[in-house]
UniProtKB/TrEMBL annotation:
Gene3D superfamilies: Ankyrin repeat-containing domain, Hotdog Thioesterase. It comes from the Eukaryota. The keyword Flavoprotein does not apply. ANK repeats lie at residues 232-264, 336-368. Residues 18-120 form the Fluoroacetyl-CoA-specific thioesterase-like domain. Keywords: ANK repeat, Repeat. This is Ankyrin repeat-containing domain protein. PROSITE patterns: ANK_REP_REGION, ANK_REPEAT. It comes from Aspergillus cavernicola.
Amino acid sequence: MSPFNRKLLPDTTRTRVVTSSMLASKQTTLAPALLATSSLIELMELATGEALEPFIALGETSVVAQISMTHSAPVQEGVSVAVTAYHTRTEGVRQSFRVVATDPGGLVAEAEVSRVIINDALIMLRAKVRQVVPLFDRFAAVPGPGEDVLDLCMKPPLGQRGLKDEDCFHGFHDAVQSGNIESIKGWLASGEDLSPLLDGALYVAVIEGRAEVVTLLLEQGANPKRLVDTSQRETLLHLAAKHGSMDVIPILCRSGLDPNAGAYIEQLSPIHCAINNLVGEGHDRTVKALLDSGANPNCTDDENWTCLRYAANIGDDCLAELLLDYKADLTDTTMKGDTPLQLAVRQGRKMVVSVLLRRGADPGLKDARCNAWEWLEGRDSGLYSVGRCLRP
């Protein structure tokens, strides 16, 4: 990234006459024919981006990382609006601005905007990986130990890392994406140094659920313990759980990943990720793969919710059966005192209630007007769901 040779950047102003395309009424018929907040945000992005243009090197771009805006006055079509960005501070690669929008009548809006100068290839990688798009850029670096996304902003594109023939990397990518083992082996034996791509390739293979490819890449030296997201401590095992890559899970566990490692602010383990992110076919098989690999069915998140509570809350009776097969605790209670059975009753999850009763849950519903067996037969328990069923 180009060095900043000034403590504060020059003020920049963007002036625009409000046109019909900038009106809120163009976005929804329920909105008034006045300048839309989204149009103001666009002008603020342009003004702050223009301030950083002299400091952006080839292969870089700047993006908005955070914006907090107060839109305080209405503006009609045809009125001229001036948006001025005042640079306030530099914090590492983050540049902060105070942005003020005015019209002839005075203040229209003001905002605090932060921008980051980032590698072009990296920002495209982040977008493409989220959508699992089969493109070469997915093999750009993923964060390593002690790194985060902003650290990677400083890394050069792949073409500047000593990799000679881009065509071979496209071919290697396609082979990993499709799971073509013979083609992958051919590329690995080609004499090209593919070591800078192995960790990224492992990332893709995990998302795609390519168990044989994952095994091969690990044998070649890919590091399974590099964090997918260092800021949230997300491992490849969390990634496999979210994408339903059940065949990859035991391989990653054998390579040393902890099936009970917490991640995110909520301290979600891989099994929580599997339950929260998967629906339909493969849901229970992914959870079973984690349980077979040592995941604790009674692990909790930061609000002390177990997997069985999740199953009761969402009404997944098959998942409840599976968890109970692996010794999930029927008597565990939430911070409000509800057992999984009582939570299922509050949420009206009859199939889960049936499973829990059949597997030995206490049918008592505390101070309710009936027990769980009677509730299944149609009696009103008196347990209300609004508020009480909310976490924790």
